[in-house]
Design a protein that fits this description.
This protein has 3 helices and no strands. The protein is mostly helical. The longest helix is centred in the N-terminal third of the chain and has 19 residues, at 10-28.
């Protein structure tokens, strides 16, 4: 296969795109657009954020503070 044929090949461009995507993710983390728009936190932090919010709500309710 000549270099010209290789550059015209869609399979070659898909392969290069995949390698570029993996290198970019290794350097900069996952792409926010692929995570689904408004979901900017990683999946590992959702549990800890929920527990922190839950703890804050319980503490506020015990103190008598309400946000309504």
């Amino acid at each position: 296969m000549t270099p010209r044929q290789l550059l015209r090949s869609p399979a070659f461009h898909r392969m290069v795109r995949g390698v570029h995507k993996r290198v970019r993710e290794m350097r900069h983390g996952p792409d926010l657009e692929e995570m689904g728009g408004t979901k900017i936190d990683g999946p590992e932090s959702t549990t800890s954020r929920f527990l922190q919010h839950f703890k804050d709500e319980i503490r506020d309710q015990l103190r008598g503070n309400t946000t309504k």
